[in-house]
């Protein structure tokens, strides 16, 4: 199963996890502090460690974490765990970040997301924010036996492959595929224009080809629509209208809705299936899919970045807070 490729038993990461309340359905670390990247983020030891903690009951979890790690929170801590959870769930991409924390000698930031919100994002790509991070190699530190979550994690990887296929030609390399997959959650992200390294996607993929193969290899081998020439590192896919329609029909619901909105002229009110059939025959099918992705990612990334200003206020000014 592809999900197994995500799992890790990093002792240092589990040691950091021990500083937080235990009630986690999923905890993973990601980014340049975990997997080597080329370019400006190549120094792993100096890089911040990024975590996401998935919790079934955010109010209860924040309540316990406020007692353990009061200084991690911005001014919002004075309003208590219910307000923090409300900000987490109702603004941005459903994740609440505490940045610039020093733990066991490493600078970290961690995001908290509800299990139900994450499952929805993995299945439907409502925000493609945490789901996008989970399309790239991450190190899973803890995961419970939530069958729905495990199934959604696997579905997210399969959706990433299908979406990338629609934007690629009939024949392409493994690197081409992994670049498309790694770039899905950056489509339309305003940070790639105003702040982030423009070569970020390439810098993620190049040094981590083996990790991407491990993550997606079994999915590619099982897919009936692809010929995967492992030794040559090449793939061939069905680009017929029938093949593309099959792929379009399995896309996450939010992406299908965005494609329908883009392609459905005013007054026509086509249903989604009718629109997708039309797109399948369109020579610009891949570009339409890319526009649909941008329509999801752009507002999501802007809302989350705006929320980050409030969740990080005073943390930045007070400096790097020590985990208690």
Describe this protein with a few key phrases:
single chain, alpha+beta, nucleotidyltransferase, 48% helix, 324 residues, 9 strands, disordered C terminus, globular, 15 helices, 6-stranded mixed beta sheet, 3-stranded antiparallel beta sheet, lipid metabolism
Topology:
Elements: H1 11-17, E1 26-30, E2 49-55, H2 58-68, H3 81-90, E3 95-103, E4 106-114, H4 115-124, H5 130-133, E5 139-143, H6 147-166, E6 171-173, H7 174-183, H8 191-194, H9 200-205, H10 209-222, E7 226-229, E8 234-237, H11 241-249, H12 253-263, H13 272-280, H14 285-312, H15 315-318, E9 321-322
Parallel strand pairs: 2-4, 3-9
Antiparallel strand pairs: 1-2, 1-5, 3-4, 6-8, 7-8
Description of the structure:
With 324 residues, the protein is an alpha+beta fold. Helices cover 48% and strands 15% of the residues. The strands form two sheets. Strands 5-1-2-4-3-9 form a six-stranded mixed sheet. The protein has a three-stranded antiparallel sheet with strand order 6-8-7. A hairpin with a 4-residue loop joins strand 7 and strand 8. Helix 4 runs parallel beside helix 6 and helix 12 packs across helix 14. The C terminus is likely disordered.
